[in-house]
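## retry 2 of 3
previous attempt timed out at serialization; input unchanged, resubmitting
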Amino acid sequence: MSGPSWLAGGLAVVMIATAVYCVSRLVAAWRWRRPTEYDVDGVHVLMGVGMAGMLVPRLNSAAGSGWDIGGAAVFGAAMAWFGWRAIQGYRGGRAGPHAVAHHGQHVLASGAMLYMFLALPSAGAGGLAAGTAMAATGARIPTFALLLALGLFGYVIWTTDRLSSLAPATVTVMASGRAPVSAALSGPASVSITSSGQAPVSATRSGPAPVSIAQPGRVPVSAGPAMSPRLAACCEILMGVAMGYMLITML
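## retry succeeded, writing output
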């Protein structure tokens, strides 16, 4: 099965944009000391670049320099890492079912990337035209490719269904000796925070808005949409759709 070249090119552009956004998340988390999943964002950057190079081989500047072996090694390690995190969270009871499923999603995505790097050496080397690389080589195990695609589409539906629960909320925090400052949290519930020597302060929903950071002795700084949990989930949706499409074109 082969897809049109314009669709492959469009998906490649989306994957590059997704990788750039994930880089901005890493920069924002480091710059403003915001908590984030560095491993997830880092792997998303590599996935976006890797899929763009598979969809449009001429974008792959690493052709002929161990691209396939390196990519397979990276995503094999990522698959093992997220699998370990999922198992540890389940055994230790530190993570709920949603968190374990979240890690399972990255295990599946990393496994799909590993499979494509192993099954499509000529596509990774940049020797085929855009939109035909995957179809020309074909899946080495078509049934496994189909199962991976179905699993990815299932996680796309699951993540899409959870988007409404990731609506940001605004929390007012009393910093010691300072006026109230705002910070953004994800989740639909209200939160109350009691500071030392202060009365409880309630959080209120405000809809999607720029994130503010409150640190003792510092002026709050806005992290903007870079740390939005909804945008991060949208990245996972886009990557899941792109991976599923790539796997189906291999059948």
